[in-house]
Amino acid sequence: MRPPVSHHRPQTTSPRSDPSRPRASLRTAVVWDVLTDAFDRRVKATGREALDVLDTGGGSGNFAVPAARLGHRVTVVDPSPNALFALERRAAEAGVADRVQGVQGDAHGLFDVVERGGYDAVLCHGVLEYVDDPAEGIGNAVAALRPDGVLSLLAASLGGAVLARALAGHFKEAKRALEDPNGRWGEGDPVPRRFSAEQLTALVEGAGLRVAAVHGVRVFADLVPGVLVDTEPGALDALLKLEAAAAELPAFHSVATQLHVLGETQGAAEA
Asked: What rounded mean pLDDT belongs to the chain?
C-alpha cells in the first residue's frame, strides 16, 4: 500500500521559503514548522532516514509533496479523483513521484486501502469537519500509527468563524455559529462542523494519545487585507513571524481560523 522505497537524499528546503507561493505560506507555515520538528524527532528516535507518512484527505499534496521533498514516503488517501490527479502531477513536477502514492478512499473506510499500524506519522487535515463521526475518524487515524507514531490534526475553529462573521457585519450569523452545536452560521455555511481547542484535545486524548502541542493557525492572516500583505515591503515576513509568536498562546486559540493539535502515542512520548 505504501510508495516504493527511495534512495534519494532528503532535500532541506522548506516550503515556507518557496518564492512562487508566498501567500500560501501564511496558511501552512505554523503547521509545517510543527510537522518538520515532529518528523525530525521521529527520525532521530527511530534511526530511519525516511519515515512512512499517511496523509488522510491530503488532496493535491499541500503537505504530502513537501514531506516527500524531505525524503519521506507519503501515502495520500482522498475521495476525489481530480485531487489525486493533481497530486500526481504536482509530485512529478517536484521530482518526488517515487515517494508519493495517491489512493482513492476516505476516513471511514481507511483500512480498505491502507494497512493498520504501518505509519510513523498520520496527517488528518481538514477531515473531521466533514466526517459523520469525528471520534471514529480520529480512531482510524490513530489505528494507522505505529506504536511510536505521531498524529497531526488540523480542523476549523469555532471561534475564528464567529469572529469572521462579526467583523463582516453578519452579527446574526455570528451569534448563530456561537450557539450552534456544530458551529455553523447558517444554511449556506460550507463547513459542516467546527471545533474548539477543548473539543479537539478531548478527541485526541479519547483516542489514547498524549497531546504534545496545540497551535492556533491563521490567527491574523485572514483578518489582514491582502493588499497590505502584497504591497507593503516586509509585511509578509513580519506577519509570518507574528503568526508564529501567537500560535502557541492559548489566548489566541479562540480567534484562530484553524486549530492544530499534535498527538503522540505512548511510545513516541517516551522516546
From this structure: 89
